[in-house]
Amino acid sequence: MDQAQALRDLIRQRGSGGRGAEAGMEPRLTGKGKTAKLITVTSGKGGVGKSNFTLNFALALQAMGRKVLVFDADIGMANIDVLMGISPKFNLYHLLQREKSASEIIEKGPHSLSFIAGGSGLSELLSLSEQDLAYFTEQIEGLADEMDYIIFDTGAGLSKENLNFIRSADECLVVTTPEPTSITDAYALIKVVSGAEPGVTFKLIINRAGDEKEAAQTADKIAMAARRFLGVETTMLGYIADDSHVVQAVKKQVPFSLAYPNCNAAKDLQRIAYRYLLVPAPPEPSALTGIKGFMHKWLRRTK
After folding, report:
1. Mean pLDDT for each 10-residue chunk of the chain (303 residues)?
2. Alpha-helix runs per DSSP H in the chain
3. Which of 19, 96, 147, 258 is the most exposed place for a label (fewest CB within 10 A)?
């Protein structure tokens, strides 16, 4: 029996038995048994501010009353903890070794933001036995029942691991900058992912934009190419200004939205979070959703 079949059997067993927008217009998910929406944040190349966006976006959603967990899934370059100036006591490795439960490896960042550090455990995740897979799925599923959003900060580029995360989650946020190389790499990522997994929802974040016009032009270039050559629709969720306060915050190891809440980048980030919560979730093409659907699709890609 392969890993994918093992997970399907496990699922069957459990299955029986804009600028002026206001927060709060999306219904708050409550009650036992809710399943978090799974979001991947990725980029076509490194150095575009992907992890910084992930961290501050998560903090913004949390400030609006959502329960958020950040999962650092950047294999080899995990750095969410560094951006917060935190040295995690535990990471994914301790869960996979069954030294700690999923709830025990959750660390708390600024404003009590929940996050899981990847560490060396990410490489272990790629070669789980069927028994370990069932344990991992059960543990993460428990977290999903307590959260509104789980945000996976993936690595940049087109590695097999990144693609599996992107293709398995509910939605993909692609971070890019107006630089030509960043634009072409973002398009390449969308091309590969959409070719392998039709139906993935892409939303664009234009980082380090000179102004709104430049951001719109950048998003239009990607959208036009994706529509013409791939038949894929992409939308711009928002943009973040090229703001020196962001660099200063990184040096301080404090999220820029907290260190400089009135800077242009922080205000842009907040508008993105408002807009995100006002956009209805895309319909699910599969009966398997949430963490179960994520694991099902993930393992289908690693066979």
Report:
1. 42 38 33 74 95 97 95 82 94 87 95 89 68 82 91 88 84 97 96 92 97 98 98 97 98 98 96 85 58 74 62
2. 3-15, 50-63, 80-84, 92-96, 102-105, 121-125, 130-144, 160-168, 180-196, 212-225, 244-252, 256-259, 264-278, 290-302
3. 19
